[in-house]
Amino acid sequence: MKKVTTLFINLFILSCFINGQSLISNVYNRNILSLNGKWNYIIDPYESGFYDYRYMAFDAENNADPNYGGFYIDRKPNDKSDRVEYSFDASPTLMVPGDWNSQDDKLLYYEGTIWYRRKFDYSKSTNLNRVFVYFAAANYETHVYLNGKKLGIHIGGFTPFNFEITNLLREKDNFLIVKVDNKRKREAVPTLNTDWWNYGGITRDVMLIEVPVTFVKHFAVQLKKGTKDVISGSIVLDGPPLETKCSIEIPELNILKNIDQLKNFEFQVKGIKYWSPENPKLYDVIIHYGESTVKDRIGFRTIETKGNQIIFNGNPIFLRGICIHEENPMRKGRAYSTEDAKLLLGWARELNCNFVRLAHYPHNENMIRMADEMGILVWEENPLYWTIMWENKETLENAKKQMSEIITRDINRASVIIWSMANETPVSTTRDTFLIEMAKLTRQMDNTRLISAAMEKQAKKGEPLTQVVEDPFAEYTDVVSFNEYVGWYDGLPEKCNMVKWEIHYNKPVIVSEFGGGALAGFHDDKLTRWSEEYQEDLYIQSIKMLRNIPQLSGMTPWLLVDFRSPKRMLPGIQDGYNRKGLYGTTGDKKKAFFILKSYYDEIEKNK
Ligand code: GCU
């Protein structure tokens, strides 16, 4: 490898810092040190750790008394007379990853700032290497400091981010300070009002990543759109460009090809075993760059639409789905691990699902990688939920950044077939303009997957029993999806027999939500709200009503498991949970589970 001077490297690293950091992908297959575990924390509802405590207007990073500073310098008293009014050493700990709400009853409803601190030693394997700190997610606004210096800020609660720490890292006694603020904001994504718990904190994995001075930060490899035997891709380098060889290797397909590091590549391949729910075949794909390699396990498959059908690997497919929130019902908090993914996708598999709608925000990478392994197709969604501040430029930039982060993270995941732009967003010109922008960005970054959104519908003028699915945004999507609650929010289950659907699009249709609540174990007649029998009858009537929609190509009823929501406080029934799950929070199946499963069994048998 050509010798690269240290000065040049430092200049390059500095330029990265000034220009902001971009995302490293495929992190679990890299040279990483996990920082998961117990972190000390200080709760800080008044932002005392950020502002000089005497003048709220002052910002500790710019105007503080140099002897005070913010929590991010982790100051210790110089002697017994010195006044320091905080101490991470003496503070309690939280587990990382993990939301704070489910770790301590005092934090169940907390919305504000918590400061975390993690101390660590680190010795680089070779001196020229570079080191980044990577967060798989933290909700919602995160400020990160290392050894008293600010690394940067990330906004968004469900997407990864990283900062370079090469020049700040020392062998001993590093201290990483992370300020996480989960206060909801009108201009945020999502906005103030959601039907899910506002879990705050460092909710997913944290790790150090050591890389060569110039490394493959990201690579995308998949079947070229419209082909079954052309693999195309690109790599993104970070670091001073080297005059070195770059190649892609797929051993099982006898592929070893040199590629131009700065250009997109494509080549024909024979004998691919396509990834599918029946056979989720993954290949080792290795990118060689100089002496370094980065490897991923990638499945190859095609997804497209033809008229009102979804075509998967060349054949029409019906998506037997279910909606899932990112919650482990046993731990009663945010899901984040491979075990959590196995639990939730295992329950979906028991329902005989081949598809999951990961609502209403990007779930953790372990969930997507588990779907790849298990052969479960995935709908990923960004949190443009309900009444977003469509006219706010910063909100659009925020949404686009979150979308680009999740596409970068998951571009190589065969299981992901649909990018959803939004959920139940009232139609307006500003909303349409905003969503069209989002769809444009998504197609620019990834033209191989389908675009949808849970769109709007309304009763036909003069015919209250005719529901018309009509949404200006449907013109820009590949799949028309909508949520409906006839029999729950709209009449009783018997109303399903009277409702007609008008959907004037020659596009595949997914019913992205239907269902109703039931308290697991509560039994009564089918007209008694909240009984399992009511929910069971609602599923029977809903399926009978929906299965006759000519373009119906899939459904994702709402939803797999009861989940926490501050909007659901009916004592003795909800107690802070939305009860529309087919599983209760102790993993018990409700009667409606078996109705949906028998419908999916029938679909699978007759496919
Ligand atoms: C809406 C929304 C969900 C919500 C559900 C409900 O359709 O998309 O997020 O939880 O209805 O009311 O239970």
Description:
With 607 residues, this protein is an alpha/beta fold. The protein is built from 7 helices and 35 strands. Helix 2 crosses helix 3 (365-374), helix 4 packs parallel to helix 5 and helix 6 (532-546) packs parallel to helix 7 (591-605). Strands 21-24-25-26-27-30-32-33 form an 8-stranded parallel beta barrel.
Key words describing this protein structure:
607 residues; eight-stranded parallel β-barrel; alpha/beta; binds alpha-D-glucopyranuronic acid; 7 helices; 30% strand; globular
Concise account of the structure shown:
By secondary structure, the protein is an alpha/beta fold. Helices cover 17% and strands 30% of the residues.
Instruction: Give the oligomeric state.
Output: single chain
Report the C-alpha radius of gyration, rounded. Answer: 25 Å
The largest β sheet comes out as: 8 strands, parallel, barrel
Bound molecules: alpha-D-glucopyranuronic acid
Instruction: Report the average pLDDT across residues.
Output: 94
Q: In whole angstroms, how far apart are the ends?
A: 55 Å
Q: Uncertain spans, ≥5 residues at pLDDT below 50?
A: 1-5, 11-21
Note the topology.
Blueprint: H1 6-19, E1 32-34, E2 37-43, E3 93-96, E4 113-120, E5 130-135, E6 141-146, E7 149-155, E8 161-164, E9 174-181, E10 206-211, E11 215-223, E12 230-238, E13 246-250, E14 255-258, E15 265-268, E16 283-289, E17 292-298, E18 303-306, E19 309-312, E20 315-317, E21 319-324, E22 327-328, E23 333-334, H2 338-350, E24 355-358, H3 365-374, E25 377-381, H4 393-410, E26 416-423, H5 429-445, E27 450-455, E28 457-460, E29 463-469, E30 480-483, E31 500-503, E32 509-513, H6 532-546, E33 552-555, E34 563-564, E35 577-578, H7 591-605
Parallel strand pairs: 21-24, 21-33, 24-25, 25-26, 26-27, 27-30, 29-31, 30-32, 32-33
Antiparallel strand pairs: 1-10, 2-3, 2-4, 4-9, 5-8, 5-10, 6-7, 6-9, 11-12, 12-15, 13-14, 13-16, 16-17, 18-19, 19-20, 22-23, 28-29, 34-35
Bound molecules: alpha-D-glucopyranuronic acid.
The site of alpha-D-glucopyranuronic acid has 9 residues, from loops.
